[in-house]
Amino acid sequence: MIDMKIDSHHYTALDDEEFAEYQRLKSASGHERLHGVWSLRQAYKYIGKDYKFMQCVLRSTDGHELLKKVVIPSEKAHGHYDVFADEFIDIWDKHKADLVLIARRMRPILYTETRR
After folding, report:
1. What confidence tens digit (pLDDT) does each residue in 43-93 have?
2. Residue 20's Cα: distance from chain center in Å?
3. Helices then strands (H, E): number in the chain?
4. In 56, 70, 79, 87, which residue has its Cα 20 to 30 A from 96's Cα atom?
5. Do residues 50 and 109 make contact, with C-beta atoms less than 8 angstroms apart?
């Protein structure tokens, strides 16, 4: 008998066939959604952007409002953030154009070397 847990549900497999089904379910559920917490670096690398882009978005009023429940400053170290992966991806998918405009607007203010 094999005991296992999938998404907080307990299953008991009686044979190899049931165990194979468990492995298939586990694999399928892992590919459906990204779970967990990312670092800020993982988040901006996922969307193909850089550190300055994320800082521009986070420091703007509009960007902060969009991401306030998704990007949480860490209590452990200054300047480090935890990012809820699922929610971040949803917001990026829905508001990509807005976030890019926000970053473009803020970049010359935060990073003077980019002024032209």
Report:
1. 999 999 999 999 999 999 999 999 999 998 877 656 678 899 999 999 999
2. 30
3. 5, 5
4. 79
5. no
